[in-house]
């Protein structure tokens, strides 16, 4: 094997030009085909079946599977899926700046509209339930990953789950307060 075979040992950009298994890269921050500047690899089993994995300079990981012969298919045509890593919760990596307003999290949850839908690419049109990323972005931009890198908007589950937990706690506090105000039923009554 020689330097540069399959992209091995090559230092510069290796933009893929065909379905060959190879290391790939692109230094263009405004690339139309890759999620962002970075590098990765691709593998295929025919000229129209190309799997690509990409790591950006910010350590985000993306993947996609192409059913075309063009490994530089625009991300607007075949979006990349972002792999989501577990959120870091370790105090050694944080500077705590205060307590979260639980009612703000509850208000955000109350502002969400839940929908039923099917994916456009789903031939069976299986009905699903969920939210619309563009609507959640208006409530709190931290709830979504923009379409800028992957070609499609996706949810960031870390702030969504944490706001859901905060909203549950806010409601639990309200329930406890209401239970404290309630008088116990009189002996012999059918209440309770």
From TrEMBL:
<dbReference type="InterPro" id="IPR030392">
    <property type="entry name" value="S74_ICA"/>
</dbReference>
<protein>
    <submittedName>
        <fullName>Tail fiber domain-containing protein</fullName>
    </submittedName>
</protein>
<feature type="domain" description="Peptidase S74">
    <location>
        <begin position="89"/>
        <end position="182"/>
    </location>
</feature>
<dbReference type="Pfam" id="PF13884">
    <property type="entry name" value="Peptidase_S74"/>
</dbReference>
């Amino acid at each position: 094997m020689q330097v540069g075979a399959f992209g091995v040992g090559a230092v510069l950009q290796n933009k893929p030009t065909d379905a060959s298994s190879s290391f790939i890269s692109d230094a263009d921050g405004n690339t139309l085909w890759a999620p962002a500047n970075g590098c990765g690899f691709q593998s295929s089993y025919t000229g129209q079946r190309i799997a690509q994995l990409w790591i950006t300079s910010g350590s985000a990981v993306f993947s996609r599977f192409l059913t075309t012969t063009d490994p530089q298919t625009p991300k607007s045509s075949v979006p990349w899926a972002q792999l989501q890593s577990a959120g870091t919760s370790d105090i050694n990596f944080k500077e705590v700046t205060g307590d979260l307003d639980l009612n703000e999290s509850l208000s955000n949850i109350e502002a969400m509209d839940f929908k039923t839908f099917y994916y456009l690419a789903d031939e069976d049109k299986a009905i699903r339930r969920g939210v619309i990323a563009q609507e959640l972005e208006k409530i709190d931009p931290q709830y979504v990953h923009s379409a800028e890198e992957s070609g499609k908007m996706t949810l960031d589950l870390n702030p969504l789950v944490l706001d859901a937990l905060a909203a549950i706690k806010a409601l639990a506090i309200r329930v406890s307060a209401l239970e404290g105000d309630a008088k116990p039923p009189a002996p012999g009554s059918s209440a309770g």
